[in-house]
Design brief:
- The chain is an alpha/beta fold.
- 51% of the residues lie in helices and 11% in strands.
- It is built from 16 helices and nine strands.
- The protein has helices at residues 31-42, 70-78, 93-102, 111-122, 127-134, 138-148, 160-168, 173-213, 235-241, 270-298, 307-310, 315-318, 322-332, 341-350, 363-378, 385-398; strands at 2-8, 12-13, 56-60, 63-68, 83-89, 217-218, 226-232, 247-249, 258-263.
- It has a five-stranded mixed sheet with strand order 1-5-3-4-2, sandwiched between helices. The chain has a four-stranded mixed sheet with strand order 6-8-9-7, covered by helices on one side.
- The protein is elongated.
- The relative contact order is 0.06.
């Protein structure tokens, strides 16, 4: 039963738990709430210094607990009000806390305050009760309740979202420790990262089970002689792509995805290509080093001295090589002059291995190789034996005629 009574403000208190801690009010030490209370006081009747809507109190053995209107009572304290009119009910603490949560729809609480009120509600009922009062899904309430148990371990006052994240990772001590260390500012990004990692692990487990059931072999490294089929993130589609001899590989750079490889068709020239690459690669490495070292040493000789190399250049064809030239030459020397850019660009456009990606001798690359060696020799360059051997391989491959001995 409720009645309108005049009560002494000294007898009015917020709801407290069994330890004397405030359970159902905003933190009025926060600037945002102080400003709100000040604005609220300014809106009161200037004569009575009281609000148009009286606070609702619950009688509690000679004193009163605030069911609704904490801020109005604080505003009257600010105005030095001694007594005020209030709606007084014979109620219970449970009703007071429920009212405190509903007040959030009128003036949004700070995150820490909402967390405190939520914890107070959990003292009065199960997850279904708390869900009904707060409107939070029952499943989420359970996670938040579990996370709230770790609240005392955090250095800062944490919000409801942090409670839920802690409950979400219950049983994962490493993840919970990471969230504890993250603090109030970083916990959200940390939680997103942890969820992404967990989802990737769960997806990998599902895909791995599916492809193994379909007959694939899982390997940390892809064996030689395999052909790339594609990348999948769906377990069913990955399983459908498995055929006899398929190898599944989980790349680090695509967490949770699987790459499938199938046996490559027999290549009668594979052994010959491998032999050729084993022979050419070290020769090319020595040749490239010698060429760049010579150019870095002679790039200051003057444009005329490098004219044969400059003559190889074609602005439209070679301009894409400019960025690569800049970085390559800066690696060799810091003071190479910009007025030698044509020589350097032409050099970079022609300085390439004679093999293509398969390991076959490429005719176009051979022509560029020969042209650059010839031009550099006209500038005084003496090719090393490795370059001479590659030069002869180019001549043999493209049948260069009229070569000067």
């Amino acid at each position: 039963m409720a009645s309108i009574e005049t009560v002494s403000i000294e007898d009015v208190f917020p709801l407290e738990d069994e330890y004397g801690n405030s359970m159902a009010r905003r933190d009025y030490t926060l600037k945002a709430n102080k400003d709100y209370v000040k604005r609220l006081a300014e809106s009161f009747n200037p004569e009575t210094k009281q609000p148009d809507e009286p606070p609702v109190l619950v009688r509690d053995e000679g004193i009163y607990r605030i069911k609704a209107g904490n801020s109005r009572v604080e505003a009257m304290r600010l105005l030095k009000v001694k007594s005020f009119a209030a709606v007084v009910e014979d109620g219970d603490e449970k009703a007071v806390v429920e009212a405190a949560w509903r007040t959030d729809t009128k003036k949004t609480y700070e995150e820490a305050e909402r967390a405190d009120i939520f914890k107070a509600l959990t003292l009065f009922g199960d997850d279904e009760y708390v869900s009904k009062v707060t409107g939070i899904e029952k499943k989420r309430v359970g996670r938040i309740r579990k996370g709230a148990e770790r609240d005392g371990e955090a250095v800062e006052q944490m919000p409801l979202g942090w409670y839920e994240a802690m409950g979400e990772f219950e049983g994962d001590a490493e993840a919970q420790e990471t969230l504890l260390k993250a603090g109030a500012r970083a916990w959200e990004s940390v939680a997103r990262s942890l969820r992404g990692k967990r989802e990737a692990e769960e997806r990998r487990a599902a895909i791995e089970a599916a492809v193994l059931l379909a007959g694939a072999e899982v390997a940390e490294e892809v064996p030689s002689g395999m052909k790339y089929k594609g990348r999948w993130s769906d377990p069913d589609k990955a399983a459908e792509a498995v055929e006899e001899g398929t190898v599944a590989h989980f790349p680090r750079y695509y967490p949770g995805d699987v790459e499938l490889y199938s046996p490559a068709p027999a290549d009668p020239e594979a052994d010959e290509r491998a032999r050729r690459r084993d022979m050419v690669d070290p020769l090319w490495k020595e040749t490239e080093g010698a060429r760049k070292e010579w150019l870095a040493e002679h790039v200051l000789d003057g444009e005329e001295a490098l004219a044969p190399i400059v003559a190889l250049g074609d602005w439209q064809a070679d301009s894409p090589y400019w960025a690569g030239v800049w970085h390559a030459m800066k690696h060799l020397r810091d003071d190479w002059p910009r007025d030698r850019e044509w020589a350097v660009m032409a050099f970079n456009a022609h300085d390439r291995s004679i093999l293509d990606w398969r390991g076959d001798i490429d005719a176009g690359s051979c022509r560029k190789f020969i042209s650059l060696t010839d031009a550099m020799e006209l500038c005084g360059y003496e090719p090393p034996e490795a370059e001479q051997r590659l030069y002869q391989m180019c001549v043999d491959a493209i049948g260069k005629e009229g070569k000067d001995e």
